[in-house]
Amino acid sequence: MRLATKLGFLGVFSFLAACSPQEGREGPPPTKAEVGFVTLKPQSVPRTIGLRGRVVAYATAEVRPQVNGIIRKIAFAEGREVKAGDVLYEIDDAKFKASFEAAQAVLKKAEAVTAGAQTTYDRNRTLLQTRAVSTQTLDDSQTSLLQAQADQEAAKADLETARINLDYATIRAPIGGVIGVSNVSVGALVTENQTDALATIRQVDPIHVDLVDSSANFLRIREEVRSGRLGRKPGTPIPVTLTLENGTTYDTQGEISLIDMVVGQSTGTFTVRATFPNAERMLIPGMFVSATVDLGTMTNAFLVPQRAVTRGDDGKATAYLVSAEGRAQQHVIITSGTVGNDWVVTDGVKEGDRLIVDGFQKISDGSEVEPVEASIDDDGVVRQDLEPKAAEAGKETAQ
Question: Which family does it belong to (predicted)?
Answer without folding.
Answer: Belongs to the membrane fusion protein (MFP) (TC 8.A.1) family.
